[in-house]
Design brief:
The complex is a heterodimer.
Chain A lengths: L16 E8 L9 E8 L4 E5 L6 H8 L7 E6 L2 E2 L5 H6 L1 E5 L10 H5 L1 H5 L4 H14 L16 H12 L6 E5 L7 H17 L3 E5 L3 H7 L2 E6 L3 E6 L1 H6 L4 H7 L3 H8 L2 H4 L20 E3 L4 H11 L3 E6 L2 E7 H8 L5
Helix pairs in contact in A: 5-6, 11-13
Chain B lengths: L24 H41 L3 H16 L2 H7 L1 H4 L3 H25 L3 H10 L3 H35 L8 H8 L4 H29 L8
Helix pairs in contact in B: 1-2, 1-5, 1-7, 1-9, 2-5, 3-5, 5-7, 6-7, 7-9, 8-9
Classes of the chains: A alpha/beta, B mainly alpha.
Amino acid sequence: MTATREPRTPDRPPADIVFDHVVKRYPGQETPAIDDLSFTVRAGETCCLVGPSGGGKTTAMKLVNRLIDFDSGDITIGGRSIRSVDVTALRRDIGYVIQQVGLFPHMTIAANIAVIPNLLGWSGDRIRARTDELLDLVRLDRAFGKRYPAQLSGGQQQRVGLARALAVDPPVMLMDEPFGALDPITRTEIQDEFLNLESEIDKTVIFVTHDIDEAIKMGDRIAVLRQGGVLAQYGTADELLAHPADDYVADFVGADRGLKRLSLRRMREIVAPDGLPDGATEHADGGVGPSVDADASLRIGLSTLFAAGADSVRVTDGDRVLGRVSLAQLQGAVSGSAV
Amino acid sequence: MSGLPAQVIPVFSGTECSPDDPLCWSWVTGNWDSVLAPALVQHVYITLIAVVVGLVISLAAALYAFSRNWFAAGFSGLSTLLYTFPSLAFFIAFVPITGISLTTIEIGLTSYTLLLLFRNALTGLRTVPRSAIEAAEGMGLTPGQILFRIRFPLALPSIMAGVRVATVTVISLATVAAAVAPLGLGKPIFDAIHTLFDTELVATGVLTILLALVADVVVLGIRWAVTPWLRAAR
């Protein structure tokens, strides 16, 4: 984040990933692992692949960097079929993050990050600058560069895993349950940071998870797979929660999907000015009843409301009170379309 | 032994040494430059040649065998067979071909290192964390790059464990080899066996043990130097 950004890699634009009637069949198995899968991950978006174990979500992801080869159909990245590119070149252009991180234990953190730049023949100066830049990006002290993976905590290791995947600024990233092995606190922290980081780096991401809450949080769009690698539904979290395509998806997103929808929106979006007289500004620490920050989710707002036993909650932005939100407004924000 | 006549005391023994003395220090100092030091130096290079040649062959074989099970099984079988030969018979077997020479000794000693070194190297290459390999494949390392940049360095602890055992084994076996070619610390030992003078036997034996201990420390030092990640404390 500091001055030494000079020889940085030019940002490469993200690319669409298109699954076009992809079929993967393992020899000796009656049903395909991936059956006629078609969907498009738009450039710069994060698509979460969710589904039951054996639903083919990891298989679908591994088809993209050809760790697994499909039988028919096609997958294109930025309009080019992944089969028209040399497999090594293809993989080096796709960031790959796995749950077990897979850092190379005998290499320092800096050397781990520099593996692909080294193979691509980058100069020492460029590699050092890039390594520092990436450590900054994943919020690790630059001094970590000299340490070995065994000296880092699980969360720190996965930050390095992210930095390594981003080393050559690939337009596409594949992430296989990247935060699944972390404790809940670290997981939340690193999820939040990854969301932040995604706003700085423009990548097309396929993110595999079995956790629907993680998918709702991380994904611009969610692809729900069912047994046999069939796409059950593809849409935004709000679409999935409001209009699940069938009982399977409804079941998968959970009976509490009404509450989950509350998590998707912020109080700021539904607050209506509550008709305070002109010039009279209610002060955040004045007023009566519970208050909640404008950037809190509706779910937090509802919880605050219930906890205080009030009928409305004040929405504050710093010192300012933006207005009030009532229980009925909260209900209105998710009902109608829900269920 | 003291009851026997004294004329068999070798001529190179120290002046004040009695045959009853198990370790006569003046003999050791008197014969250091002429007998012990040259034998020790010879022993060191006999060992070095055997271990280094054995290591090169074993590493090449292990790297080749890594993705070829037929070769792994074949080489493993061959090296096990070589290992089962009685050492003296093995050394003697090569005399008609390579003569009474350093080569004969080295063929035997090197053969004995192969089993230890090959097995350790192959095990090391195969027991790399699965996740590191999965990440490497996904990142776009070729199978060759994975073998040489990931598997090989991670096999070093196992390889060095093999080198450690092989080195000490060779130091001990090389004394037997002197029965075939009079080289190394085995020569004064065999000389002394034919005499009633114990000092030479004891001094050389102790020297061999010390050499083995020092060599072990040296190998540990090399292992320390080539595996910096193992000593990185949390």
